[in-house]
Specification:
It contains 17 helices and 24 strands. An 8-stranded mixed sheet has the order 7-6-5-8-3-2-9-10, covered by helices on one side. Helix 11 packs across helix 16 and helix 14 runs antiparallel to helix 15. The structure holds adenosine-5'-diphosphate and magnesium ion. The site of magnesium ion (MG) has 5 residues, from helix 2. Adenosine-5'-diphosphate binds next to helix 2, strand 4 and helix 4.
Length: about 575
């Protein structure tokens, strides 16, 4: 189709709006144009967080010389011509807004050649106006170069995050598109560094290797292989993680509808439901899922960025996604049995009551000397452990059940914060450096958050493609499986929020991994020590996530329950 300006009645029906919010939006729009042009290779080069320089070049169909200027008119598009087309559109773009919007806020150069033409077309625009045009040699395809983004919109420039944040947004964006289009070779270069390179051989697993690392990619399970294509029903395909592989947040869920990267609460809920009973609370799967369906089933014209969409048949979509994922999990993974703790409460070898050290029989006589620790917690006497998870203690006013994991988490959280306020978090070198494999996103976080990671005692060095050498970790993590905690520490730094919040999340993540687990048998001595430390913390009654660390059954309540009063 040739490029035409849309009729006003079509324009009024499209969810127009600001599409150029930040550098990543420019990359998104240009990359979508390349994909719509049928490119099999797309190179993306970015400098200075995208503000200085963005160049996207492709080997797609190119633009005819006579239409190149028209492409920069508002609402000029070759992708739809009428309202009827809008309903059936399968292209990523259709509003004819991106190029003119970008040209308004940056200096833009276009170099393009269609297959049918011998020489290419060159255009240079300033503030949306063509200032130079000409014929230039160019291989078939299109290259758009964007310089000095937002220089004429200082308010927008001020609003942008650091270039590392913008870079990681761009990296994430290109990774997602490369997952959606395994048949396209993507090449992303940031400040001269090759960040992502996909083979474009059509194999999604090979793209997963580039985005998530070899180990993760190999562990992932393929879904929807057997579903027949070509019917009217939606078809689900992609990869999901086995339950043994999970993440602490939902940012590893990628959803595509007809290869369009979307945000979908519905699909996220369907996937998480399929994992019900297979993952621990607070854990989330990794999933890359594409839903192919008739364009009429979905309205992409809801939001300017087109990342939010509307399904016309929500229950069918939900069930199809849920069903496909669940089936794969059940077929491929034995469902684990729920195992109750083999240790009954108060076994003979576990002293139920703390006995006096003189060997006399333990008794219930309470040393009721009212004493309150600085934490506001009364001095507690440990009686025993319940279900290897809770510490039973008594205080001057009744019984306390303490969640050993939550309590220890709180202690460690305070400890790390205190160290951090002084000379930094205590670090421990590993005797043998550990090789770890990071996802692309984690890699970017490692680069972007070097300073905070060093302050928290991490020493991590590059060691080849996607692999790193872990040389030192916060002392709190030492002596246990550290690979997962380190990855999660990185994930916890993802937040764009203010640095203080990031520090707190990292601290909470470390505290959680360093803390004793539920189900771990503790000696009397260990429990006494834990309770003693609890007395010193500032908010002993809640864990860093805000959950209670202890339940108090007051003497009054006990008396009432036993009908004594
Ligand atoms: P839209 O993608 O919504 O049509 P754009 O402003 O992004 O609007 O692009 C306008 C038109 O310019 C497109 O419809 C397409 O015809 C042409 N175009 C833009 N980028 C490319 C490209 N990389 N290759 C071929 N044609 C392109
Ligand atoms: Mg477009």
């Amino acid at each position: 189709m040739s490029i035409c300006v849309l009729a006003p009645e079509v324009v009024s029906k499209i969810a127009a709006g600001e599409v150029v919010e930040r550098p990543a939006s420019v990359v998104k729009e240009l990359m979508e144009n390349s994909l719509d042009a049928g490119a099999s290779q797309i190179n993306i080069e970015v400098r200075g967080g995208g503000v200085n320089f963005i160049r996207v070049s492709d080997n797609g169909v190119g633009i005819f010389q006579g239409e190149a200027e028209l492409a920069f008119y508002r609402y000029a598009t070759s992708k739809i011509a009428s309202l009827a087309d809008l309903e059936n559109t399968t292209s990523l773009g259709f509003r004819g807004e991106a190029l003119p919007s970008i040209a308004q806020v940056a200096q833009v150069e276009l170099l393009t050649r269609s297959k049918e033409e011998i020489s290419g077309t060159y255009l240079c625009l300033r503030e949306g106006k063509v200032v130079e045009r000409g014929a230039r040699a160019n291989p078939q395809g299109t290259t758009v170069t964007v310089r000095n983004l937002f220089r004429n919109v200082p308010a927008r420039l001020k609003f942008l995050k650091s270039s590392t944040t913008e870079n990681s947004q761009i990296t994430d964006l290109v990774s997602q598109y490369s997952l959606a289009f395994p048949g396209v070779r993507f090449n992303l270069i940031i400040d001269g560094r090759r960040v992502l390179h996909t083979p474009g051989n059509g194999k999604l697993r090979d793209v997963l290797v580039q985005v998530y690392g070899l180990e993760t990619a190999q562990a992932m399970l393929e879904i929807g292989k057997s579903s027949r294509e070509g019917g009217l029903a939606p078809v689900v395909s992609g990869y999901i993680s086995p339950p043994s592989l999970s993440r602490a947040n939902r940012s590893y869920l990628s959803f595509f509808v007809n290869q369009r990267w979307i945000q979908s609460r519905l699909m996220a809920r369907a996937v998480e439901k399929a994992y019900e009973g297979l993952l621990m609370a607070g854990r989330h799967p990794i999933a890359v899922i594409n839903l192919s369906l008739l364009p009429q089933w979905v309205d992409v014209n809801v939001h300017p960025t087109k990342r939010e969409i509307r399904f016309s048949q929500e229950p069918i979509i939900f069930n199809t996604v849920y069903g496909t994922v669940r089936r794969t999990l059940v077929e491929r993974v034995p469902v684990p049995e729920v195992s109750l703790s083999p240790h009954p409460v108060f076994t003979p070898e576990q002293q139920p009551l703390e006995g006096p050290s003189d060997g006399k029989k333990p008794g219930f006589v309470l040393p009721l000397i009212p004493h309150v620790a600085p934490s506001g917690l009364p001095v507690l006497r440990v009686l025993g452990q319940l279900g290897n998870t809770y510490i039973i203690a008594e205080g001057p006013d009744g019984l306390y059940l303490i969640d050993q994991h939550a309590a220890h988490e709180r202690i460690l959280f305070d400890k790390i914060l205190a160290q951090q306020a002084k000379e930094g978090v205590e670090s421990q070198s590993l005797l043998e450096p550990l090789t770890i494999e990071l996802s692309l996103r984690q890699e970017e976080l490692l680069r972007a958050r070097q300073e905070i990671l060093a302050r928290f005692g991490f020493v991590i060095e590059p060691f080849g493609e996607r692999t790193y050498l872990l040389r030192a970790v916060p002392a709190i993590l030492a002596g246990q499986g550290i690979e997962e905690p380190v990855k999660e520490a990185l994930d916890s730094l993802e937040d764009d929020a203010d640095p203080a919040e990031r520090e707190e999340k990292l601290t909470a993540s470390l505290a959680c991994h360093g803390a004793i687990r539920a189900g771990q048998i503790l000696s009397q001595e260990e429990m006494r020590e834990l309770v003693k430390q609890m007395e010193k913390v500032t908010s002993p009654r809640t864990c860093p996530h805000g959950r209670p660390t202890m339940i108090h059954l007051s003497s009054g309540l006990l008396e009432k329950e036993f009908g004594r009063i």
